[in-house]
Structures are given as C-alpha cells and as structure tokens.
Amino acid sequence: MRVHRTVAAGLVALLLGMAPGAALPAQDESAPAATGDAERMAAARDRVLPVVVSILTVREDFQQGEPVLTVSSGSGTVVTAEGHVATNAHVTQNGRSFRVVFADGRELPAQLVGEDSLSDLAVLKVQPPAPETFAHAEFAERLDLRPGDTVLAMGAPWGLSNSLSAGVVNNPRRLLVSLFDDEADYEDRLGADQPTGRYYAWIQHDAAIAPGNSGGPLVDLHGRIVGVNTRGMIFGGDLAFAIPGPDAAVVVRELIGKGRIERAHLGFRLRSLKGTGFERGVLVNAVERGSEAEQAGLRPGDRILGLDGDRVDAPQPVDVPALQRRIAELPIGHRVRLDIERKGRRERLLLTALAQPPDRGEERAFLPFGASLVELTPAMSRRRQLDTESGLLVTGVRPGGPAAIARPALQSGDVIRAVDGRPVASHADLEAFAVPGPGRSLVVEFHRGAERRLTALVPVYGDRVRTPLPELPKAWAGVEVQAVTGSLARELGLPGPGYRVTRIYPGSPLGQAGARVGDLLNALEGQPLLPANDNNADGFHQRVRELPIGHRARFLALREGRERHLEADLAAAPADASALRTLSQSLLRAQLRELGFYDRVARQLPATQAGVLVDGVESGGPAGLAHLKTGDLIVHLGDQPVRDLDGLAAALDAALGEGNGRVIPLQVIRGAETRILYLERYWLTETR
C-alpha cells in the first residue's frame, strides 16, 4: 500500500479490489422514503450487494530485477448488463490475470478493458462460458451528499467477500491536504510517476474499510453508487475516501467505449488562491520547460482569470481539481484562450491543447539481462533531471545476474540507450536481442547521471539451473556430537571431556560400529579429542575429515563408566543442500532442488525416496495458486512419477501435451502426509 505523507500521516492506497454483477431494476428516487433508516439500508443492501464481487488478481511486480508473481484481492461492482466491472486502477495495476468471485461463489475469468491511473479507475469484463445478461448497479447521476448522510461501504476487506459496513459522510468534497501542507506538493505525494486524484475531490466518510475494499462501491440509501472506495487510514480511526460516483461514471463509460482516457495537456499546474491575498482567478504554480504553455509566454505566478471566455476561480485547494478536469476535457488540437493577470496587467495568451503524454512508461523484466526496466517518458526524465528523454531506466538488478556482473555493472537509475550500437528506446527494441545463442558479449551504452558509459554484458537465456562446482569428497563418521569441555563435564557428571554423540544417521560408519546416542567420544586414532569450547563441535568433524575415505578409524568411547573401542570404516560425506542442483522453473514460477541425504533423514523418508524438493514459490505463479509450499516434496505430476529435476520437466511437458481436463494433479509429501494438489491449466497459460 502506498502511504501518502499528509499531516494525517497514514493515508494509504488500499489493496486491489473488483467485481462483476447484473442489471438491477431502476428505483424511483422521487418515491416516499421507506419508514426508518433500517428499512432503507436493507433495501440499498439488497439492491447492490448481490452485484459486488471479489477480484483475484495475479500481479507481476519486480524485486531486484526479477519478475515476481503475487496474488492480491480486491472489490468491484458489475455496472453493465454485459458484465463490465468497475474497480480501482491500483487493483488491476501490473495484473497478468484476473478472476472474479460472485456473491453466490461462482468464479469466472475476466479481461482488462482499460485502466486510468490518473483517476485510479479501471474496468474488467467478465468472460462467462456462454453469453449471459448480468444484474448490475448504477452510478448516481449527481453528487448530492451532505455531511451526516448515511452511506454503506461494500466489498471484500482482507479478501472476506460479501461484507458491508455503515457510516456517515464526513465531507463530500475533500482534498487530501491538511491545514499545514503545501498544496503544491499534493500531486507528488499521491504518486511521483503515477499521481491519482488529479481531477476530483474525494468523499470522506467513516464507514469501515480495509485492504481488499478498494474498488468496492460506496452506496447511499437510494441504492445508488455514490462513490468508489479507494483510500483509508492505516491508523487513527475510521477515515476513508471514495472517488465521487458521477466522476467515476464518466471515466468508466469512456473506458468501456474506448479502452483508454484521452485528455488534453497544456503544460502547467495550478494552485488555489489560498494565502496569496488575491480574490479572483487561479494561480499558475508551475510551467513545464519547453511546453506549449511556456512557448505561449505563460509564467509561474501568473493568475488565470478566464478560459475560453469563461471566468475561472479557485479560492481554496478543493476547487482546483474541477478546473484541471475542465482543461483535460478540452478537445485535442483546440486553440485555447487564456486571460491572465501578471503584475497588475492583463494579457491574453493562445495555446494549442495537446494530447496528454504518459506519466510513466511500461515496466518489464528482461530476463537475459537479469534486470527490470521501465520505458522512460519525458515526464519521468524531468522529475529525475536526466539529460535524455528516451531509453530504458533500470529499476532493479538481480544479484549475480548478467547486469550485476557486467563490466562495469549496471545499477538502478542507469538509462540504457543502445546495445551493440543500435538505439534502444522501448522494450521491443531490447527484446530484439533476446535470441538464444553462445555467450557473446553485448556492448551496452548507458547514461549514469551526466556520464555516458559503456559496459560489456553477456546475456543468459532459459531456465536457470545451478550445478555446484564439484568438491573433493571428505571422510564422514555419520554422527552429530556435542562438545563437552572438562568444566562442563564436571557439572554434567560426565567422566571427562570429549564429544558426546547426540545423533546417529542411518547406515552411518559409527552406527554400524556399534556407537549409541550418549556415548562420549574422547579419542581418535589414539589422540585425545579435546573441544576448545562448549559451543562448537567443528573440532571433531575436522579430525575425521583429515583421515582418508575408507580408512578404518579407531575411536575410544565412554559408555556407563566403561571404555569401549569402536572401529568404523569412514565413508564419503553426503552432499549438503549447497552442493545440490537447483532449478528456477519459469513455467511453475517455483525454485526447486534435488533431494539429498539430509533431506530424507530430516523428513524420516526411506533412503530410496525420490522426488524434487520445493525451495521457494511465487504466490501468484501456477505453483503458488495450486497451494504448493516451500518444503513440499513433489513425487508425482500428472501421470508421471517425479524422481529428479529432469523427471519433473519431462512430467510437466507430458501433462501439458495431453491437454486433457482443467487441472493437472500434483502429489506431494508434506510433513507426515501425502497430499494431492491441482495445477490449473488456466494459470499455466495466463501467467506465462
């Protein structure tokens, strides 16, 4: 959740939320109100709650240059008979796949129709197996809320569907600027690269909402959607904010019709007259360098008095969003007339309304480089004071990956401009180099601040298999021991210093020689075993490793006050986890490794047990959505047993090739149980 730094200090964007629904009968708002608020609340509930849905979103975010799939949930409302669902853009942001859950428990996939980060609104469309007509709710046509009006917040807080809370409107027109904030910083606080709430004031209310409510409706007692719940307090009481319903309706309709929002841009920012001493107009707070506004002669500090002949005024911060929306709704190419006042003199300026450029480019991970990158926009470049407006901005680097070991290494904040002399301004430009081949170095030109640098980078393709370097085998006695110094021996009542046997591994050399748990080993090859301290048993294992594998080692042990001579044929030490092969499986989005001796012992499995151990799972990947967990041992996939990493890959290919059924069974050993899980083919294809 994004925390916004206001004096209230705690406003956060709530977690994702969406839903689909079906058309509801129109209600005559002029009819007499039901007797009592309880009846009216019940009527509003029954009108809207059945079409409020929960949304399951598989998101692709980026951590240290790697794409990571996670699962989020949110809320939404079905708003058309065709199954369009209105929700927040931060619910669908970075979404790779969507599912909606209806009030009756039915789940259906959904596709993103469009999203608009500047209003924080998005639209999904439900994909039923056969055409159907959906019940749906309707937006209020006008905002007529007053402080104290009862409102209902509906959605899925913390993923708990069909939830409803009641409260009252605190303020129907609220800007998230406290008495002590500088309103000029308002947009930057709402998001440096993707500000939201630029074009409306919020509805402040106290109906309880929590993460997961985002995108759900705020409903009045007429059963109208008067707002879309978007933000809440992370602490400090019931304080919530919703996008006004009439404003949301305009954006939703345009997203349904066009899939995007077209806005005009003049190249300046506004602030209210609060604290300036002026009584008329709106203040120009900032002018972008090189913009249409600057070229027309507009300057910071100018006061705009008229727009295309109409008077404009913004005495308070809450009045600014409506003016900014009015400018944004100007037709592209329209010749705009501004009447301004500068130092007591009035002037008229003419500007051409241009299409609003994107605030932020698309972010992706480029796996051959082991880096995440975002397409640079002029707005991003201005905010970072970069000397270039095109290229790929590095946002993260995978430790040990190609970008991290390039000569010199790339780092976050660098801007890639060219590869092997070819300009790179988009992901498509870079992906032209994603052709597997021999490990040939690429020459990457990048900007770091004001410097223009070159680096040699060798890309890596495909799933990452780590095969550890071979190590020389070492002798092993097959026991775990506890160091016992002379002073500790006296306190424990033991006959002397040495190493007390605490565990004997199955089939171990000392176990076969007759050792038991509790034996005190105090000599090896006739030399005393004297621990350096009570906390470290490495001295024992080091003495054993100094002997050759296969050597018959002679141990002296004390058991129940009597000396016992044990002779053990030392074996090669089993490989520990760091010496086993690992695989980052891109289709399952899971980290896997070979099963080793110590794994079998820890899980009390037979020495012949085969399988693949799960080392890590991305919650939003197919494995995570099948509820596979770290520590699970995969023993069967589809119709094939899984013996090792290669066997898993073969079983997965075979199961996908069959293409039968909606799910692929996956059998795992978890703790003392053997469980059956199911990989859904839908997620295997949707999250590729």
TrEMBL record:
Belongs to the peptidase S1C family. InterPro entries: Chloro_Bact_Ser_Proteases, PDZ, PDZ_sf, Peptidase_S1_PA, Peptidase_S1_PA_chymotrypsin, Peptidase_S1C. Residues 255-309, 352-432, 584-672 form the PDZ domain. It comes from the Bacteria. Residues 1-25 form the signal peptide. The lineage of its organism: Bacteria, Pseudomonadati, Pseudomonadota, Gammaproteobacteria, Lysobacterales. SUPFAM superfamilies: PDZ domain-like (SSF50156), Trypsin-like serine proteases (SSF50494). This is PDZ domain-containing protein. The keyword Glycoprotein does not apply. Keywords: Hydrolase, Protease, Signal. One of its GO terms (molecular function) is serine-type endopeptidase activity. GO terms for biological process: proteolysis.
